Input
Amino acid sequence: MQPPSIRFNALGQVFKTRSGQTEALRDVSFDVAHHEFLAILGPSGCGKSTLLRMIAGLLMPTCGNVEVFGMPVTGPRDDIGIVFQKPTLLPWATVEDNIVFPVRHKTGHVSPRDRERAQELLAMVGLEGFGKRLPDELSGGMQQRVGIARALHMDPDILLMDEPFSALDALTREVMGFDLLRIFAEKPKTVVFITHSVSEAALLADRVLVMSGRPGTVGSEHIVPIRRPRGPESMKDPALLELTANLRDLLMTREAA
Ligand SMILES: Nc1ncnc2c1ncn2[C@@H]1O[C@H](COP(=O)(O)OP(=O)(O)OP(=O)(O)O)[C@@H](O)[C@H]1O
Output
């Protein structure tokens, strides 16, 4: 069996600010298995984004540690891709140039193969033929697809997604969820996916962590009891509906607390 891709060891995070200190996370321990899709749910401010930033090496924990592939994280790494709530594309660069931006940033040049791969990824995210457009010429959903293609371009082993669909309308969001299922079925990755949508978490993930807070800690974990491949019909699966109802109850209780 493969060792876990990500491991949190008794991790804590205290932010010190001019107005005092905030204990954002306390004693967080969990693993994310190789090619597991883990969704994280939890009340606002319980530290979900903070967890992602620590996996990505953008923030160091104040106690405990986070390991990626068995090594403590000490800084940003190339084998982790990140998709944020907003795609933050360079407005003056074409869609294709945005997708190859990380490789240009890392190596200083872009090869014909890099451009070919950008085209393949555009097709994969449903944007074939849009490579020469500027971001402003695309809808919010299309821009978010470009952000996903950019995160996949360096073929990262781990993909971190922080509420990637929260700025989208409900229908686009649902379509993007099904697209993600297809993309990861073609090319499995270890994914950590933060969302406030219970049904999105249950549809996409192998396992759902529900955090409680604050300080945030792991409240409970739930295996998603439906098989892959998944699609629109999975939304009607009684096991998924039961899990969704349970998660919703849990979150309501936690939000109220
Ligand atoms: N750089 C920072 N400096 C000070 N406090 C911070 C910083 N980053 C996060 N925090 C605090 O840490 C706590 C957790 O924040 P975080 O953004 O991780 O929560 P979250 O669960 O992702 O919230 P949401 O669901 O609303 O996006 C919050 O109380 C936040 O104010």
The pocket of adenosine-5'-triphosphate is lined by residues 15, 17, 22, 24, 42, 44-50, 214 (CB under 6 Å). The chain has eight helices and ten strands. The two ends are 39 Å apart (CA to CA).
